[in-house]
Amino acid sequence: MGGIYKRKGNSAKNKQHHRMLKTKSYKRANDQIHDDIKPENIQKWQNQPVDETLPGLGQYYCVSCARYFVNEESIKKHQISKQHKKQDKRVKEKPYTHMEAELAGK
């Protein structure tokens, strides 16, 4: 009656599974965020046009964490959290340049 069933294998061997996980939870890198917190760029992120596809219509955005929030209450709660304070500290550090990375590799 039944046939031989092929096992799919575990996800450790599945390349497609790993690619999906990389892009699913992608966040902006710290060096990208470091550029966003400059005074000329921060206004662009804080005064965004209304976008129905984003949480909170894109009006509540934490620049240092690169996250959108649903309402003002949730972003205020986030700003006093430990996670936000750690990320804020990380982002304010000057990122390494390509030249510094090459010199360290030699």
From TrEMBL:
**What Pfam families would the database entry show?**
zf-C2H2_jaz
- Compositional bias (Basic residues) at which positions? 80-89
Protein known as: C2H2-type domain-containing protein
Q: What is its main location?
A: cytoplasm
> Which keywords belong to this entry?
Cytoplasm, Metal-binding, Nucleus, Ribosome biogenesis, Zinc, Zinc-finger
Compositional bias (Basic and acidic residues) spans?
90-106
Q: Which GO terms describe its cellular component?
A: cytoplasm; nucleus
User: Where does this protein come from, organism-wise?
Assistant: Paramecium octaurelia
InterPro entries in the record: C2H2-ZF_Maturation_Protein, Znf_C2H2_jaz, Znf_C2H2_type
Could you tell me where this protein is found in the cell? Cytoplasm; Nucleus
For the keyword Cytoplasm, the answer is: yes
Which Gene Ontology biological process is one annotated for this entry?
ribosome biogenesis
* Protein's UniProt keywords contain Cytoplasm: yes
GO molecular function ontology, one term from the record: zinc ion binding
The residues covered by the C2H2-type domain are 60-89
Q: Where is this region: Disordered?
A: 1-20, 80-106
What family does this belong to?
Answer: Belongs to the ZNF593/BUD20 C2H2-type zinc-finger protein family.
